[in-house]
Amino acid sequence: MRRTTRRAAVLAAAVLLSGVAAGLPAAGEPTPRPATGSAAGSASGTPDPHAPVGGVVPGVEGAAAERAAGPAVAGFRELRRTGGPRGTAGRGTAGRGTAGNGAASDRTHNFWGVMPPDAGAGDGMVATHSVHQDLRISHQEDFLYAPTSKPGNDSCVEVVTSYSRHFGPQVWAWDWCRTGNLAKQVNVDSDFLDTYTTTVNGHRAYTVQNVRTNAANNTWTAYLHNYATKKWDVFFTSSGRDRTDAAYGWDVFEIYSTVDPATGEGHYCPASVGKPFESSDIKLRKGGSWAAASPAESPIVPPRPDPDAYQCPSLRFQVRHANDHWVVEH
């Protein structure tokens, strides 16, 4: 009862904020493969979500994945301690210009992007996410999870692009149904770039498809598009109850940042100049068909972000096409 009440309250808040026109969630597919439907790949060259399944994305799993990802895992777990991005946004904030010492209590958590409430989220999401192999953050306790995405309707897998000081960028599969922890990670190295990325608007980007593959036991499978084979490689699969208890999905830019006393800005701010965080061709699956995310069921949250609240006053938050393409850059 408590979970139902909480989900209803969060959904009501999202509808009030964004005027969401609700739709019905679609049923899942019976086998672990991308669903078929009427929509094809977009004119911009987005991979066809109905392309066949290929192999398996190589990577490190379980406890070894947590060790390979380092402190960024603990930071992400802290952000998700009460569910989705909304749960801890703004907590432990040190305002711009505060001489924070890097302690956890001085951190700012904030996010921006698409958040479809469950009623309109369908049972799958596909998006193309930017990735920057050379992006490092100077402070050891600051992290970027950008973009990070998880479909609505009790999805089990969140796919995260993680940046930190300790390692180069990594792509994660976070298991929200079985363990509530990082389940798999892959480094964004030359092999990953050659296999799983293409060039989008002048930078590298990978495409993730995350769909319910068995409705009976709530199995979800995340795939990465293999640009060499033109197939979808399995990244991670999980099933069971969604531990986030969130009544919405998300595809967002997310920070966990402290202020550099020398600049009055977050440590990630100078590191990310000229490196846009972009999610394009966001689609939701409903009734077996794919459709571009739209303002009706996929509101931008928050609708009017203040760059100072992200410890980076030069940031620009842009909706390039409502609401299936967003960019955060400076």
UniProtKB/TrEMBL annotation:
Keywords: Signal. It comes from the Bacteria. Residues 1-26 form the signal peptide. Residues 37-75 have a biased composition (Low complexity). Residues 26-110 are annotated as: Disordered. Residues 84-100 have a biased composition (Gly residues). This is Carbohydrate-binding protein. It comes from Streptoalloteichus hindustanus. The lineage of its organism: Bacteria, Bacillati, Actinomycetota, Actinomycetes, Pseudonocardiales.
